[in-house]
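Risk register update: the risk that structure generation would not scale has been downgraded. Supporting records follow, first protein first.
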Amino acid sequence: MMTELHTKRLYLRKMKVSDTSSLFRIWSDPDVTKFMNISSFANENQAKEMIELLDGLAQANEAIRFSIVELESTEIIGSCGYNSLDFEHAKAEIGYDIAQAFWGKGYATEAINSLVKHAFTTLALNRIEAKVHPENVNSIKVLQKLNFTFEGTLRQTERVNGQFHDLNIYSKLRTD
């Protein structure tokens, strides 16, 4: 499985343990993790464990997560990837997070666009899905810019900190 993608301003590469401190800074920000299905990290070891877990899923060809590197500063500004890969049904679910200092600059749209293109061309997938908390307006805007279709609301589909949450589901097909 390919481990890097390039865009005009970004380099997406497979996460590695050496990314721990950079990703910890992002994943410890409660504004970044607010709509993710994780609690904000309290120590770097949690970030290291997450990277190792994601590496195991990548080894099993079940998921792949990229660190998003801004080319100009060479700084890791977030992560994105295929949260699940289902080759039998030719589909994947995507996810992404961007450090707050880089919000509103089009980086998420640029990164996700490259993931979608890679999924349809190189991975030969037919469908990309994204599940988004209904209040995550910025994430919804990213998906709308990329012409994802809102399919509906999955009611109380995810439990975070003992609370059930709805998620909106968006999709994009190869033929869209």
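Supporting record for the second protein:
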Amino acid sequence: MRSLSAHQILQIWEIGQNQHPLDRALTLLAFGCPEISQEQLAFLSIGQRDAYLLTLREITFGQKMNGLAECPNCGDRLEFDLNVSDIRVAEILSPKVEMYNLLSEGVELQFRLPNSQDLAAIVGYKDVKTANSLLIQRCILQASKSGDSVAYDDLSATVVNQLVQQMAQCDPQAEILLNLNCPACEHSWQLLFDIVSFFWTELTARAKRLLQEVHTLARFYGWREADILSMTGVRRQMYLDLIGS
């Protein structure tokens, strides 16, 4: 994995304009992890995908993260700071499909964890229950009881719930909840942290700032975009300061 260059940030931002967040996540990783194939990236569990994104975000923008949330009680906007290490609960692993086992009510289950392709398969479903059922079915590799195969529809609610809990335990990075407290009304709540959305928002802001820097330096010095983007951020800023002095 390598940090994203200024040129790559603009490429990703341009490519991602018309992409679904699921595709944006894979685009980010494709640029940051050129040594891993697109297929392998798509097969990463959601938790592992997010662990990769957190690491890519850290080596590109740094450890500190600045967030913004709206209080669900009074609507006040809350700023909060956190470090990548505060929300990293899983280290990145080599991309491979892991298989897990669960025994519940005499039913032996073999399953894998949800990945980007699984989430893409349920994007068009408006009914949450139907979407969840399809997602679970895609992840069950085998179900049997006393040597006989068991269909998904024949699994009890208890077995399905235990399977869902087991999936969550096996992929802890997939769901990160932040504990927030509103200073205006003292309301406390939990916010689901979405690294894809967070990273994309930061990358968009950086891309727009880079375009403004290119515009200013190209207009003043007549330099090409490629030459300006190849400079370090420190050098670009020095030239911008000279223009303003």
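The longest strand covers residues 64-70. On this basis the risk owner (M.S.) recommends closing the item.
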